[in-house]
Design a protein that fits this description.
The complex is a heterodimer.
Chain A (H helix, E strand, L loop, with lengths): L7 H4 L18 H27 L4 H4 L14 H9 L2 H32 L5 H11 L4 H14 L6 H5 L6 H11 L4 H9 L4 H12 L1 H17 L2 H6 L8 H10 L6 H34 L2
Chain B lengths: L4 H5 L1 H30 L20 H8 L1 H32 L7 H13 L2 H11 L6 H8 L14 H26 L3 H9 L4 H29 L3 H7 L10 H10 L3 H28 L2
Helix pairs in contact in B: 2-13, 3-13, 4-8, 4-10, 4-12, 5-8, 6-11, 8-10, 10-13, 12-13
The chains are: A mainly alpha, B mainly alpha.
Chain lengths: 298, 296
């Protein structure tokens, strides 16, 4: 399924795939104009709702409902945010989301790299069995296991703890698969050279293997962070007290609650969840898009 | 690659590397997978949470009850409706966008690529909040926009007929970018000479698309179809945040029903449902492999 045919590292600096095809000057033939107008309309449909959300979050309640919507807020206000942070304890939820996503990302990427290295480059009893088990569970979706996982976590007395939000995501079969595929391409000679120089196994791993796998680590890290940040079902069932809510859980419970819902608060809450991710995405989009594209190629 | 002496004596160190993952994997993945199979054949309830061993085996009763339950049948029908419409729609638009972006005539290719991908990275809960507003019947942007053309929009999320199309629209909007990026990468792997040669032979754009692009892109299309299909079969957050499965169960999905039964404390039933869903996922993946493999 997801097989790396080419190590992304070897492409670094090279422009996107078919760059030579890009014309030196923009063409303005009728066909090109039509094509670009269609794409621009698509772009408006794709990015428009997100833009509307961000702009609306700094409008007063009444202006949000106005049609046609004001492109820039006529009355600029931070009040949605101040109220959100004062009444709904959003700083707390934000901190929960950040801590959980960071710990999950660092832990899961590190563990994936370690076991991926062992599976790709070291021989040990049980290696084949472990690999088959990981492959076998690659396709098992979270929706299928969340009930028994809940029973397990409850019996470990971890409900309502950060551990419940973090531990189940530290062992990620997809990450192991990705790292193993990538590490298969590291030349054995490189590892042997390190050992000849007297480096132990752990030194070899941290000083030689990890730096070689930076592009894969970055891709996996970003994907894991996004997954954790946007994760909803498990945090919804694993924590029941508000002080452990992550952002999506807090927003979902507020927006489906029976209390009178204020749209200003809702769009501000949605913006707090989406904007940091959007900024990270725009900054790192080359890695993310490249990473996604690479994982999908045979 | 010969197994060197070095490899053999590294067994201990290798387990050192593999251990953290393996322990967590065994506890938080293998145990739940195994115990969900166990639970599916028991009458486990919420009250048995702390004593999961003290439950009765009921054979296939849960599965029989699930399949005979009209609520589950409706949820299964809704899920198939959702997957059956949203998946081809998502793939079709993604393929169209990828081909357009790959044509070499686009002015701001990377802007388009980033813009179409942006919804993919957003939280579904946040997106649902935005779309619930856009689809508001009275002052939402969609109906206000339709009003400009003299069209009276439906009451989207509260209309039994229109609720599911609303969610399909939203899911397609959010997921097109993912497949588009993968398909675009696939398109760039197709040698350009093929197009040039066929152009000399007089093939038009449509013919080229059918005879070169689609066949050579088949593995990539398959991958996107499987990934999108698996995701859509687990359709949960949209009904949770937008409609609570309503109106009248019109947007209830299998995944949402699993969550509901879990909430009612019917753990055994819930586990049985997740196996039904899992089997559906496996069947869908298999079907897609078969269809795309054998089709000429």
């Amino acid at each position: 399924m997801t097989v790396l045919t080419e190590r992304p590292g070897t492409r670094r600096g090279a422009p996107q795939g078919s760059a030579p095809r890009r014309p030196a000057t923009r063409r303005f033939t009728p066909r090109a104009i039509l094509l670009n107008v269609v794409l621009l309309l698509g772009l408006a449909a794709s990015f428009g709702p997100l833009l509307w959300m961000i702009v609306s979050s700094v409008k007063p309640e009444g202006e949000i409902r106005q049609f046609p919507p004001s492109l820039l807020p006529e009355q600029f206000t931070w009040s949605n945010y101040t109220e959100l942070f004062a009444t709904l304890d959003f700083p707390r939820f934000f901190a929960n989301s950040v801590v959980v996503a960071l710990v999950v990302t660092v832990g899961s990427v590190l563990f994936s790299a370690m076991v991926g290295y062992a599976l790709a480059k070291l021989d040990f009893p049980g290696r084949r069995a472990l690999f088959l088990l990981v492959m076998g569970t690659l396709m098992v979706p979270g929706m299928v296991t969340f009930v028994p996982l809940f029973v397990l976590v409850a019996n470990l007395d971890l409900i309502n703890t950060y551990a419940a939000l973090i531990l189940p995501f530290l062992a990620a079969p997809f990450g192991v698969f990705l790292m193993r595929q990538f590490m298969l391409d590291i030349p054995d000679e490189l590892l042997d050279a390190a050992r000849v120089d007297g480096a132990g196994e752990f030194r070899t791993f941290f000083a030689v293997v990890l730096p070689q796998t930076k592009p894969a680590l970055a891709t996996l890290g970003i994907l894991t962070f996004l997954g954790s940040w946007n994760n909803f079902l498990w945090p919804l069932v694993a924590v029941q007290s508000a002080d452990k809510y992550t952002l999506p859980v807090a927003l979902a419970l507020y927006s489906t609650g029976q209390n009178t819902v204020q749209y200003g608060l809702l769009v501000a809450g949605a913006t707090v969840i989406v904007l940091p991710i959007l900024i990270v995405f725009l900054a790192l989009q080359r890695h993310i898009v490249q990473g996604i594209a690479t994982t999908g190629l045979k | 690659m010969a197994v060197s002496a070095r490899r053999r004596r590294t067994g201990l160190a290798a387990w050192g590397f593999a251990l953290p993952f393996t322990l967590l994997f065994a506890v938080f993945m293998l145990v739940p997978v195994a115990s969900s199979l166990y639970m599916a054949f028991t009458d486990m309830q919420g009250k048995d949470l702390r004593t999961p061993w003290a439950v009765n085996f009921v054979g296939f009763d849960n599965f029989a009850a699930v399949l005979a339950d009209p609520k589950f049948q409706q949820a299964a029908g809704n899920t198939l409706y959702f997957v059956g419409v949203a998946m081809p729609l998502t793939l079709g638009i993604a393929l169209l966008l990828a081909v357009l972006l790959n044509s070499g005539l686009t002015w701001f290719r990377s802007v388009f690529r980033v813009g179409f991908y942006a919804p993919v990275v957003t939280s579904i809960v946040a997106v649902a909040v935005v779309w619930r507003f856009l689809l508001q019947p009275d002052f939402g942007l969609v109906n206000s926009g339709l009003g400009l053309f003299g069209i009276e929009g439906p009451r989207w999320l509260t209309d039994e007929v229109w609720a599911m199309p609303s969610l399909i629209m939203m899911a397609t909007w959010r997921n097109v970018g993912y497949s588009m990026v993968i398909l675009l990468a696939g398109l760039q792997g197709i040698p350009k000479d093929l197009y040039e040669a066929s152009a000399i032979d007089g093939a038009g754009a449509v013919r080229q698309f059918r005879s070169i692009t689609v066949p050579l892109l088949r593995p990539t299309i398959l991958f996107c179809a499987v990934i999108t299909g698996i995701g859509y079969l687990q359709f949960f957050e949209e009904p949770f945040v937008m409609t609570q499965g309503g109106p009248l169960g019109a947007t209830n999905s299998v995944a949402y029903e699993i969550f509901n039964q879990f909430g009612f404390g019917n753990y055994g039933l819930s586990a049985a449902m997740s196996y039904v869903l899992f089997v559906a996922i496996v069947i869908l993946s298999y079907l897609q492999f078969r269809l795309l493999r054998t089709e000429k």
